[in-house]
Amino acid sequence: MQQPINILERYWNYNSFKPMQEDIIQAVLDNEDVFALMPTGGGKSLCFQIPALIREGICIVISPLIALMKDQVQSLQSKGIKAMAITSGIAYTELDTLLDNCIYGNYKFLYLSPERLQQELVQDRIRQMNVNLIAVDEAHCISQWGNDFRPAYKNITLLRELQPRVNCIALTASATPTVLQDIIQELDGIDVKVFKQSFERKNLAYMTFETEDKHYKLEQILKKQDASAIVYVRNRKATVDLSRFLEGKGFSATFFHGGLSNKEKEEKLNLWMHNNKDIMVATNAFGMGIDKPDVKTVIHFNLPESLESYFQEAGRAGRDGNKAFAVLLKNASDKTLLKNQFLNVLPDVAFIKTVYRKLCNYFQISYGEGANTNHDFNFNAFCNTYKFNTLLAYNALQILDRTSVIALTKQFNKQTSLQFLVSDSQVFQYIEKHPETNSIIKALLRTYGGIFEHQTTINLVKMAEKTASTETVMLNILNQLHKDALIELHYATTDASITFIEPREDDKTINRIAQIIKQQNQLKHSQIESVLQYIENDTVCKSKQLLTYFGETHTKDCGICSVCIQRKPSNSKPDSKTIKNAIIRTLEEGDCSSRELTEQLPYAIEDISETLKVLLEYNIITITHTNTYKLAHI
To answer: Of 230, 407, 534, 595, whose CA is between 20 and 30 Å from 547?
Structure first.
């Protein structure tokens, strides 16, 4: 038998393990059932990949995240290791062939979504496989108190019945004590060996700053920490807007969100990974499976939806062991915004019943039918048809997807694309004859390089904005160009597909998951409350607060977070009189904005703001019509 260290060196080019990895691997090789709780960056995947490579046979990996499955499969394949992922949308005949390959083709890894375990064909083939290990990734999904609970994870116990002699390893990066116990119980393990790595990150300073001008504070932080950074924002539009803002301020930035094509994602990721761009502005779709050791700063421009997700995202800073910063910006409106985004759009049972019924009607599915049927789906058209709030409807569809009533697949590869078929001189001759096409054709040529050489994906919304027109006008002109053989046009009318997993039974279908819906809504409320308590508590060490949340009680103050720094005598606040005199001296030289005062004076923004309020109250200073401060007697 090969030694774990030899496998590590051969395939990953490392000559030593991270903490706990070797002990976990050995326990798996000793045929123990194992539970591993390791924070982001701890190297969880190697804990099942290495023992699976040492043993004869194939390892079955259960994961709920298609993107993460594909990333890991590609990574293994790039090392010459045979691996495959079976995701939704695969035809029955293809599925049959793929599963046969797992039995006879010397594959080492089969990645499956938990929903696949419900299929008889999959169960039958798994019985025939020489399975050497069962790995359950993102194991918190098995617990009803876990972040992103998925009832289909209960099927994992079926997998253990299909392969009763095979041991199991469950892994997660975030689990409270309640979730941890729930996972162990649900996995039906025998004398489970629990490996729990401390969540403490001694090199990571958790900072929370209150500021009314987040853009300015962001600039200050990024100027001070001139190194690789991630800025997390709330939505896709914000990634683009904030990235442009930073570029306009002289920073090197790009953006990332789930709506980009695979090619765009790869290009932007490569720019950032190779430090051609310092700053990645992203939604929480960014980060899974990405290991960039030299990230100096992770900044949350908006509040996170849970401390679990915050800890994972913040933990992407400082993986090289050097001091790093996890910064969270907050202001007075954030509490309302957080509740509006995550609590006010939680669909209740009655609304989910309505969405499900309308969805069945939309695709003309009769009562008792529809199981395993697949349909192209235009989400916006569906919402417009039934006058649904888009956020509420989307969250309802997500719940139906997580509870295996439907399978919702976003088809970002099905986008509008085109290629010019004639020379540029012929294009301009065409414009002369059809002047109504002028602005749109020129905008296409200036925006998309290579549009003469190959099919190029275009963003209709973006092009409509650029040309001050509408998507309808854009499409009419593109169809005209296609008809006149100027371009070859491929236009997608759908942005997703839906597979109905079970037959339509209306209220009966939703009643089966009603308790899950209520419980998950309750969990979301408690998670939001935990976030608000964290940002408002400026008396307890920030690291200590996070560690306590994850069940670590015997902890010390970190000494480097925003709370600890304020306590240090050397960093004690200057008295208000000192700040007042400094402001007055500065204003004697001329009027200043609060931003200019902050840049010129060596005091915290919060202290300057408080002192300005006092000076205004006592009429020592006044505000000018240009929103600057001046001495009242001048």
So the answer is: 230
Residue 573's pLDDT is what?
A: 63
In this structure, the answer to whether residues 257 and 328 fall within a common structural domain is: yes
Structure tokens at 573: 């606040």
Domain with 618, as residue range(s), is: 573-631
Per residue in 268-306, is it b (16+ CB within 10 Å) or e — as a string? bbebbeeeebbbbbbbbebbeeeebeebbbbbbbbbbbb
Residues 243 and 328 in one domain: yes
The reported pLDDT for the residue numbered 567 is 80
The backbone torsions φ and ψ at residue 10, rounded to the nearest 5 degrees and listed phi first, read -65, -45
394: CATH? 1.10.10
Do 287 and 323 belong to one domain? yes
C-beta neighbour count of 456 within 10 angstroms: 17
**Three-state SS annotation for 208-257:** EEECCCHHHHHHHHHHHCCCCEEEECCCHHHHHHHHHHHHHCCCCEEEEC
Contacts of 600 (CB under 8 A, 6+ apart): 586, 592
pLDDT tens profile 391-409: 899 999 999 988 889 988 7
Shared domain check, 508 and 485: no
pTM of the predicted model, to two decimals?
0.73
Q: What letter does residue 93 receive in the DSSP assignment?
A: H
Query: Over the stretch 512-560, which tens digit does the pLDDT of each residue have?
Result: 999 989 988 999 999 999 999 999 999 999 999 999 999 888 889 999 9
Report pLDDT for 142: 87
